[in-house]
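Data deposition worksheet. Section B asks for the primary sequence of the deposited chain exactly as it was used as input, without tags or linkers unless they were present during the calculation. Section C holds the resulting structure in token form. Section D is free text for depositor observations; keep each observation to a single sentence. Incomplete worksheets are returned to the depositor.
Section A, Depositor: J.P.
Section B:
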Amino acid sequence: WRDDPTPYRVWVSEIMLQQTQVSAVVPFFDRFLARFPDVSFLAAAKQEAVLTAWSGLGYYARARNLQKAAQTVVRDRGGALPESREGWLQLPGIGPYTAGAIASIAQGQPEAIVDGNVERVLSRVLGLQRGVRALKSTRTFRDQIWKASGEWVRAAHDRKGSPSVANQALMELGATVCAPVSPRCQDCPIGRAGCRAASSGKHEFWKSYPGKKPRPATVQVDEGAVAYVSRDGGIYLCCGLCRRDERPGRWRAGLWDLPVARLADLRPAEAIVTKYVVTKHLVNRTTEVVRLRRRHELAAKCADGRWFGLKTIVGGDAAVGAPVRKIARLLLERK
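Section C:
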């Protein structure tokens, strides 16, 4: 996306990069763009196809919102992408950072962006600490960082510099030099003299700048599921659309998932316990495995699902989440 920073490509990459590392995103980005090369292809696709292409990246609300936004662009704007930060903010799933990133990186506009890397660099250079207000300032830490980011990119633009380069320079500096722990100050182009945190004389100053972000309390969730497995290597999954209002479970909307109820006359052969994390939820899932001799044993008893091959799921060719893929992989190994 840096080699060819069109608004659509940057938009897709920024949504994928939310809460996901670059190394994990690259192969998904290439496959996604090959399948949905522009906004019209994405808008016209079936949701299952979009979620299948996203399968493995997690946080599937990103994919659903990305397609909703594409459909909004096609329906309300005739397929023309927004040309301003304000326009991008009107679309589902796009917040201040993503809007600023697209507008500056792809459209050359002097718009501020603040991600974790930018926040860390600016907090250290300016001596700003999370939870500590500057004297005579009513701005919160986040407000001060956003203000500084805006001043940085506008100053670069006023000097005929590229907003794209200016913003990406800050992000790259944070990612490669101004690390969370033991930053390589000797390699920093700003230098210790230009960095209030580094020149403060504090031992291990990086622990105080920007300071720890408060974490939400972890919510433990216990849930049950059933894996109906046929002798020929199939597994029965339910349509995730029918589960979209569950609390917890709303993150599975649109995905194929294991049924939650076992038919009374079908006995489990074993139980598999798996754990996974979604946002602040630590989910403990106990999956009962019911092995069937014939698929039609479920006929007329379970009508809201579909059979999938275990190899299809493990290979990433179905719109399922990582927990289902893990179960499929375990079952395939035991077959």
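Section D:
Residues 141-158 form the longest helix (18 residues).
The radius of gyration is 24 Å.
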